[in-house]
Design a protein that fits this description.
Blueprint (H helix, E strand, L loop, with lengths): L2 H5 L6 E5 L5 E4 L5 E3 L3 H9 L23 E5 L5 E2 L3 E2 L4 H10 L6 E3 L8 H26 L10 E6 L1 H12 L6 E7 L7 H9 L9 H8 L3 H4 L6 E5 L2 E4 L2 H6 L4 H9 L1
Helix pairs in contact: 4-5, 6-7
């Protein structure tokens, strides 16, 4: 029996999809989607102008290591379209393509996370998620009659942008290397990006429907944004270039303490 042909694709490993910054829904204690791409949430962004638009997403100092008022939902979905935005479905196509390559769609798991928090914090949660998903998938493999020995099934990770930083931290610092067979990253800024500094300075780089001032005020409170700051020489100083300093971040209005912590991680 051609099991792969009968069940779908030929990939028998478990797969975890990790989105980039702002790529996961965030939900409050009442179950309301506070950040997402639903028409209701997007409409609220248009109603709230200036600095008020993302006020409920800003992190208080006591929330920066976890235990926030919000929890991650799924990866961003957008079931319809809005004038000027069109059909905006950032991860639907990717998920469908990956599922088509697997013997069973249950092999694919989404890892949504609170992208405002430090990369290291989310990397720990990702490591736990990968191990749980692998164990669950191994329990499914044998009854399906797949040719692979369940003990040989591993995890493959597909990560976008900031998600790649989570995977790197999980593999190198959380002991995940023993169960991960392959990592594929899409647009991951492994050495950071000047876009993070521009976001802290002027709110540049956020989705077009978010007011820049609102994006800037949110970014200033998020350790995850500071973890994206460039680690290469990018500041013009006289005739040469130098690294971005904590004082530079302070000059942009950023938190020097969070900038320092991001360089240690």
């Amino acid at each position: 029996m051609d099991t792969a042909g009968a069940l779908g694709g030929r990939l028998t490993d478990a797969v975890v999809i990790v989105p980039g910054i702002m790529g996961s829904e965030l939900i409050d204690e009442a179950g309301t989607v506070v950040w997402g791409l639903t028409p209701k949430v997007l409409a609220s962004r248009f109603r709230l102008q200036g600095s008020r638009a993302l006020a409920e997403l800003r992190l208080a100092p006591g929330e920066r290591q976890g235990g926030t008022r919000l929890r991650p939902g799924g990866l961003l979905r957008f079931p319809g379209s809005l004038p000027g935005l069109g059909g905006l479905e950032p991860y639907t196509t990717l998920l469908n393509r990956v599922r088509a390559e697997c013997t069973d769609p249950r092999a694919v798991s989404e890892f949504a996370y609170d992208w405002r928090l430090p990369v290291e914090r989310n990397a720990s949660l990702l490591a736990d998620h990968c191990i749980r998903h692998l164990e669950a998938w191994r329990g499914i493999v044998q009854p399906l009659g797949l040719p692979s020995d369940p003990a040989e099934v591993r995890v493959q990770v597909v990560a976008h942008s900031m998600g790649g930083l989570l995977v790197r931290a999980a593999v190198t610092g959380q002991g995940l290397s023993e169960v991960v067979r392959r990592v594929m990253t899409l647009g991951t800024p492994y050495f950071g990006s000047v876009k993070a500094a521009r976001l802290l300075d002027r709110g540049e780089g956020a989705p077009a429907f978010i007011p820049r001032e609102a994006a800037r005020l949110l970014a200033l409170t998020c350790p995850g944004v500071y973890d994206l700051l460039p680690r290469y020489r990018c500041v013009t100083d006289g005739a040469g270039l130098r690294h971005l300093s904590e004082a530079d971040i302070g000059g942009l209005g950023g938190d020097q303490g969070m900038a320092q912590e991001s360089q240690v991680r």
